[in-house]
Amino acid sequence: MSVGREREVSRIVCDECTRAGALRAVAGRGLPSIEPGMPTPAGTGLTRRGFMARSLGMALTVYGAGRLDIFDEGIAAAATMPKNPILVTVFLQGGADALSLLSPQADPLYRKLRPSLAISGGTAFAEDDRLFWHPALDQIAQLHGEGKVTVLPAVGYDHPDQSHFTSRHFWEVGATDSRLLTGWLGRYLDVVGSPDNPLQGLSLTGSLEPALATAKVPVAAIDGPDQYDFWSPGVWGQVEDRMLEAIGMLGNAGAHDAASRTAAKVAGQSATLRRQLQPFGGKKLTPAVPYPAGNDSFPRSLQGLAAMIAAGLPLRCVALEATGEYDTHASQASELTPALTTTAASLYAFQRDLEARGVADRVLTLVWTEFGRRAEENGSGGTDHGAAGTGFLIGTKVAGTQVGEYPGLASGLDRDGNLKATSDFRGVYAALLEQWLRFDAERILPHISKFKRPTLVK
Amino acid sequence: MGAPVYRGNFDASHAERLLWRAGFGPRPGEAAKLAKLGLDGAVHSLLNPGVEKLVGPKPHDSKGRPFAPADAWGHDHCWWLDKMVRTSRPLVERMALVWHDWFATSNAGVGDQGLMIAQNQLFRKHGLGSFEQLLLDVTANPAMLVWLNGTQNTKDAPNENYGREMMELFTLGADRGAYTERDVREQARALTGWTSRWSRRKGEYDFHFDASRHDTGIKTVFRKSGDYAWRDACHLCLSNPKHASFFTQKLWSYFIPVAPDAKTQRALEAAYNGSGRQIKPVLDIVLKHPALHTGPRMTKPPVVHIAGLLRRLNAGVTTDAWAWIGGLSGQQLFYPPNVAGWDDSRWLDTATFRGRWIAVGEILGDRRLDPGKAKEAIDAPTTLKRALAFWNNPELTPATHRQLLRFTQRALHDARTDKWKQVQYPVLVENALRHLIAVSPDLQTA
Fold first, then answer.
1. Has residue B262 got a pLDDT over 70?
2. Looking at B274, B294, B314, which one is the last position of a domain?
3. Residue contact A379–B337, C-beta within 8 A
């Protein structure tokens, strides 16, 4: 992932889809928002029909006629799956500044290191009287007050790497190993997942998040559940149905080498995914609670996700990227606030949405970033790459007690002037697998026995 | 010394693969023409293409106006796509795409299409020349200075952004023991001094080096000390013993999906160092190597796939929809996902597959056949043959051919009940086949 074409080329394994990710991070930003005047990408020319899915008691709109009978059956089949827990991960891309998210406002050293960037105001953090929530994180503070947020004030790993790509890679694969080729959740899905359900590992950023990269079972990437259809000019009726089936048949085509096999496999997965998402086609989903308005893809994706969970679609692990770019080498003050505001408001709405739909107990959300930032500001009104960062776990089932402590600026900085980690992400992953997903972490996380598991779940 | 050279038969299908790797695929007849030159002649013609000629229909946006790449949203993408489609110098454009990925700069951070286009011209100018010159020009390039905070890097307030990425991503690679965190900080000091002016109307402009903002102290980089400035920072990276191996392996990986063997690796580095860091001698080895001509296929990047489909049809760029369709396919030009560029080992997933589907639909829209005009029933093999002829008869694997024929047979079987279906369905099926062929594994890879 880190750059390393030079390593990438020396380690070609059989399957493009799995080899890759290891070596360079994809920072998918989701799909571009549709500009006014753009043509409708797909679905044009098909009739829309409202449809009441009796198995769900919810109204849906579908494209095309004469096929409504199969939806209820499909949804019903999915809905009868055992109700497994769902883990959602949200990535703050670029390395979010721990000392802004939770700031030691009363520490004179903080003011000295951050003459122009020190944060003021915000709610006091109830578990540590040295820290205050960033004012833009008010709604996260509110959920924390309800016992629905576990805070990791300084999470990281020993010998921190300050490359975005290397550090992100470590977090994505669940080990400080630059050679691992599959994501930590991908390896979990390879054990518990099924060969015909790409929805089990769902990336909602428009491209596959590396944590979900599997070696065996299919996973999916979409922008939202309401726009995954395939339309072709001059093709309709029975021939169109056959064509959609034929996309899946391309899954059996090609296949003499890794690239062709991947291209075939993705065609097959796309056809399966289209069938699974068919009931959501072409309809603006009505959320149970209001989400942040605007064109941003993060709240839209979360909103779609809540609807999919409530509809009983067979999801297990879901990966998203939060609003904003957190690599604040410059103009940190003006960039961080709007990004955190939308991110916090979206996560809050998602939590309330899940609660209103009665599915909150099935979902736990991990918010993470590849590292925190340098304690001392850099003079461009920004901060450079650091070490330990902030993490959050959100959900009705989280323990709600902080994991590790804020290490302080006087003795908590390393040689490079970066915050030292007081909890290790690998211990957090092991605890999530064991306490939330009820899965033996030793099976998929290398050398995990030496890491202490914090209590994360009630 | 001496890397292996492919000495097998060099026919049109070999020439076609070469045109995909070193360009954007053949126009009708182009592969056969190139094959006549033999491998050496073919590679020579790609490396020494002469002045640019643009061949084919003139580009325009959806309203028939010329593209305004420096100004209008999405026109930057379409302007470059048109060059890819019409150029007489495919390798120059393909190398520009390589450098765009290598020195990945996004207009999401720069916010000035004019600066992005100017940087793009740099990639075209030096794309086959000296990497040293390219690195120097990129380091002083306004779009890059904005993107990686070069103009905010001053002696009183060093900003490490460019200093780190020039080593990690552009010249040396992370985790290879080539540099330390201390080197990052010292390089940042060496790179201080760039500045610009700002106006409400023009944004950032007048990029220049201002000695008063430069740190003139002694810096220690790679255990050597001196009063280094930005040119020294570049030369320090280029003369680092780990640079040549990084450069040659990274360049190789854009063209060939398996690592070079040890002998080839030595030859690549010798060609690079021996020529004073010229790009062309390295490419000459890569493009003639047996691993390119007989090794596994590669996934075409989305813009390469799309440009290639247009070239197959002798079609032009006649809509600005290509910009957002490029985004859906996973590659909007001038907007790489981050400074490491696109992950070209992960082009395809269920989202980008749908983007490619939409791209093909865009091409087929105006070319669809009208079933109302059909006169007679046509059998399955003929229907498939016609659809393949539409794309100038691409080579398909037997497995792909079998699946397409099975679809054709099933869909035509549905027509047996009604006379009108027997006449009209073959046309609907031919439309569908054109779409399926273009997204088949065979056409997405080369």
1. yes
2. B294
3. no
- Cβ distance B441 to A249 less than 8 Å, yes or no, reads no
Distance from CA of B306 to the nearest CA of A (A): 16
Q: How confident is the model at residue A71 (pLDDT cuts 50, 70, 90)?
A: very low
* Amino acid occupying residue B355: G
* A181 in the same domain as A151: yes
Contact A163/B164, CB-based, under 8 Å? yes
Q: How confident is the model at residue A217 (pLDDT cuts 50, 70, 90)?
A: confident
Alpha-carbon gap: A319 to the closest alpha carbon of chain B (Å):
14
Per-residue confidence band for A278, with pLDDT thresholds at 50, 70 and 90: confident
Asked if residue B83 and residue B230 are part of one domain, the reply reads yes
> Considering the domain boundaries, does residue B146 fall inside one?
yes
CA–CA separation, A121 and B31 (whole Å): 67
Q: Which of A396, A403, A359, A378 is nearest to A97 (CA)?
A: A378
Give B289's contacts (C-beta < 8 A, 6+ positions apart): B3, B4, B5, B6, B256, B260, B264
Are residues B270 and B147 part of one domain?
Answer: yes
Give the residue from B338, B407, B416 with the most A CB atoms within 10 Å of its CB, the best one to mutate.
B338
Residue A446 dihedral angles phi and psi, to the nearest 5°: -65, 140
Same domain assignment for residues A167 and A223 = yes
**Which of B181, B332, B353 lies at the smallest CB-CB distance from A267?**
B353
Per the structure, how many domains does chain B have?
2
Q: What is the DSSP string of B38-92?
A: HHHHHHHHHHS--S--B-SSPP--TTSPPP-TTTSTTHHHHHHHHHHHHBS-HHH
- Give tens-digit pLDDT for B363-376: 999 999 999 999 99
Q: Please report whether residue A191 resides in a domain.
A: yes
Identify whether residues B155 and B277 lie together within a single domain: yes
First vs last Cα of chain B: how many Å apart? 29
CATH number at residue A361: 3.40.720.10
> What domain range is B429 assigned to?
372-446
User: Distance (Å, rounded) from C-alpha A404 to C-alpha A152?
Assistant: 6
Domain end residue (candidates: B294, B316, B347): B294
Q: Are A10 and A134 in the same domain?
A: yes
Query: Does ipTM surpass 0.90 in this model?
Result: yes
State whether B432 and A16 contact (CB < 8 Å).
no
Structural domain includes residue B322: no
Residues of A in contact with B406 (CB under 8 A): 249
CA distance B396 to A208: 28
The verdict on residue B117 lying in a domain is yes
A50 — pLDDT class (breaks 50, 70, 90)? very low
Specify whether A71 is located in the same domain as A86.
Answer: no
Residues of A in contact with B357 (CB under 8 A): 230, 270
Over residues B360-364, the mean pLDDT reads 97
Q: Decide if B60 is inside a domain.
A: no
pLDDT per residue as tens digits for the range A182-213: 899 999 999 998 877 777 888 888 777 889 98
Residue A348, both tokens? 């809050």
What does chain B come to in residues?
446
Nearest CA in chain A to B324: A32
Residue A245 lies in a domain: no
Does residue A379 form part of some domain? yes
Residue of B nearest to A376 (CA): B157
Task: Transcribe A335-355 into DSSP letters.
Answer: HHHHHHHHHHHHHHHHHHHHH
* Residue A197 sits in the same domain as residue A70: no
Average pLDDT over chain B reads 95
pLDDT in tens, A328-361: 999 999 999 999 999 999 999 999 999 999 999 9
Which residue in chain B has the smallest CA separation from A205?
B351
B337/A164 CB distance under 8 A: no
* Amino acid A1: pLDDT: 30
Residues B155 and B265 in one domain: yes
Q: Helix (H, G, I), strand (E, B), or coil: what is residue B136?
A: helix
Residue A294 is part of which domain span?
Answer: 5-30+82-227+281-450
- Among B164, B174, B328, the residue with its CB nearest the CB of A41 is B328
Which residues of chain A make contact with B369, given a CB cutoff of 8 A? 234
- Evaluate whether residue A260 is within a structural domain: no
